[in-house]
Amino acid sequence: MEYNEISVGLDIGTTKIVALIGRKNEYGKVEVLATGKAKSLGVHRGVVTNITQTIQSIQQAVDEAVTISGVNIKGAVVGIAGQHIRSIQHSDYITRTNSDEVITDADIDKLINQVKKLVMLPGEEIIHVLPQEYKVDSQPEIKEPVGMFGGRVEAKFHVVLGQTASINNVGKCIKSAGIDLIDITLEPLASADAVLSQEEKEAGVALIDIGGGTTDLAIFKDGIIRHTAVIPFGGNVITEDIKEGCSIIESQAELLKVKFGSAWPGENKDNEIVSIPGLRGRDPKEITLKTLSKVIHSRVMEIIEKVYIEIKNYGHEEPKKKLIAGIVLTGGGAQLKHIKQLVEYVTGMDTRIGYPNEHLAGDSDESLSSPIYATSVGLLMKGLNSKKKYAGAFIEIEEDEKEPIIEVDFEKKHIEEDAEQKEETKILENSKKNFMDRWFDKFKDFLDKAE
């Protein structure tokens, strides 16, 4: 097994923690070698609130993946989300000493590093600096300035920020679980890599990732990330509303949502009833599916409306910024019945459900094609696509699995080869001699008989 080819993605979500170990096959598709899952106990709305429980959940997911794959995880690409994430637009420039020399990657890195030194609000730090478009001297709207000539390189950036304390808590949990934090990436960006096509990113698309604790948004236009946002509630709030509205326990509310829930109340008739077992010998509770749908509908409407405000804030209603490919829904919340139709009704935009199966190898576990695993697959892909940068950083290689180093004494080898060659010549000469002797004996015998 080529260990440099292997990558690890770790999704620390509000409802679950997933560790994926994988590599690319000969067709460039992602081959998942192992999946480790654990219930997330110490995360609330995308933010670590209990470090001890989060460490235990991470270790459980990682141990499961290690047991299945048989390889030891050393590091991982980790996703980050949560209500503390925000983004800003920023412009910056550098002046080059020699405008007759071509612009190189080093110049772009210098410009990005300059942006990373921006002074933020107290307690905030930069997670991503994402270039939008460049301007070289007086020439605007340049997508790729490398290879051009110019004295002044300017760019618009989409800068993603997060609370330092929340980012550090994620880092501490990863480290305490015995894993190196190879890279940290915004979860909607990872989900976008897993479920969006390049054509959609070019045409303009809004990715809505409805997770357990947060709903994440990423908007692309002309192949470039234009806007990101995190809405601080997701599928768990719907479950909470069902629990309160129907006076049942949380596990029953989650089961009701998954099995019978719909975002469109008109679909259910008044006489459709589901019976919930009573607690400790109490009478069962009867709930109409119409009531259930109304509870779900009101909360889903709130989520969609908040996301739509962010889409309008980006400027979707301007002709140049129109999102032609519409909306792609992913995450666990995208599995809710009739949510696609409701999103189309509220926004008036074409909508589809995003599955990460396009990038997965044909023989992959079917469950990984679910929208639930969009972020996990995207994080794994991030590591695989940057394998030169992170070569050998993900997997711990046992001593006995390393290639043995063979030292060669060339002088001795040369003498041994000469001896072998002489021995081969001697054997050949003997075989020739034996053949001639046998031939001569047969010829002599033939003459004797002729007499």
Summary, kept brief:
With 451 residues, the chain is an alpha+beta fold. Among the domains are: 86-162, 2-Layer Sandwich (Dna Ligase, domain 1); 407-451. The protein is built from twelve helices and 20 strands.
Structural overview:
There is one protein chain. The protein has 451 residues and is α+β, with helices and mostly antiparallel strands. Among the domains are: 86-162, Dna Ligase, domain 1; 407-451. 39% of the residues lie in helices and 27% in strands. The chain is built from twelve helices and 20 strands. Strands 3-2-1-7-12 form a five-stranded mixed β-sheet, sandwiched between helices. Strands 15-14-13-18-19 form a five-stranded mixed β-sheet, with helices on both faces. A hairpin with a 2-residue loop joins strand 9 and strand 10 (139-142). Helix 4 packs across helix 10 and helix 6 packs across helix 7 (250-260). The radius of gyration is 32 Å and the shape is globular. The relative contact order is 0.14.
Structure characteristics:
about 450 residues; alpha+beta; 5-stranded mixed sheet
Q: Helix proportion of residues, in percent?
A: 25-40%
Largest sheet: 5 strands, mixed
Strand line-up of the largest beta sheet: 3-2-1-7-12
CATH architecture of the domain at 86-162: 2-Layer Sandwich
Identify low-pLDDT runs. Answer: 402-413
Query: Could you tell me the radius of gyration in angstroms?
Result: 32 Å
* Terminal residue distance: 75 Å
- Which structural class do the helices and strands define? alpha+beta
CATH T-level fold name of the domain at 86-162? Dna Ligase, domain 1
- Total strands: 20
Average pLDDT over all residues: 87
Instruction: Assign an overall shape.
Output: globular
Which band does the percent of strand residues land in?
25-35%
| Tally of DSSP helical segments | 12
At the first level of CATH, what is the class of the domain at 86-162? Alpha Beta
